[in-house]
């Protein structure tokens, strides 16, 4: 179920520099990533979507006392967003069209592959999926929503297989996307050494203080 909030929350978020938005995404998602890593991600898709929708609400700092047209959503809502892919729905985000309820401005934020971001320690980035490839579709998004901002997020555990190769390949790939902004943070957390992100088991997990590289990338149209 989606919830609409006052457009002031959209204006506040989009009023921040892109680097600050990406930093907010990392800082407000890390606790959920740790929880999912240690206790597991629900195998019920609706519950997973509810989790990631809650993360978006924290990133945007919305308040239920101020409801309105800025709609926070997740994939389970089947909200069709025009991203250029057939029946493609961003995992989570928030949007309000231009002229909704008389407001002259519009905003569209999405965390692309959001559930994947919070349910793995070695997921790759795909910058070419941040926005639609076809210029006419991108133009349509801008005409309908005005400000369009898309992000991807990954937490990489240093002890995951292939960490350094993955990191180096990602950094090299960014040269192909000069209009993509990146924020990187080095973090640590006490997380499972094995069986991460699986539903909680009865056995006592082996835990370890682990170095984690958090990276968020974003592109604004």
Give an account of the 3D structure:
The radius of gyration is 18 Å and the shape is globular. The chain has a seven-stranded mixed beta sheet with strand order 1-2-3-4-5-7-6. The protein has six helices and seven strands. Helix 2 packs antiparallel against helix 3. It has 221 residues and is of the alpha+beta class. Helices cover 33% and strands 25% of the residues.
Count every beta strand, where a strand is a DSSP E run of 2 or more residues: 7
Task: State the order of secondary-structure elements, H for helix, E for strand.
Answer: EHHHEEEHHEHEE
Q: How much helicity do the residues have?
A: 25-40%
The total count of helices amounts to 6
Our measurement of the CA-to-CA distance between the termini, rounded to an integer number of angstroms, reads 28 Å
Low-confidence stretches: 83-88
Q: Given the C-alpha coordinates, what overall shape results?
A: globular
- Estimated structural class: alpha+beta
- The proportion of residues in beta strands is 15-25%
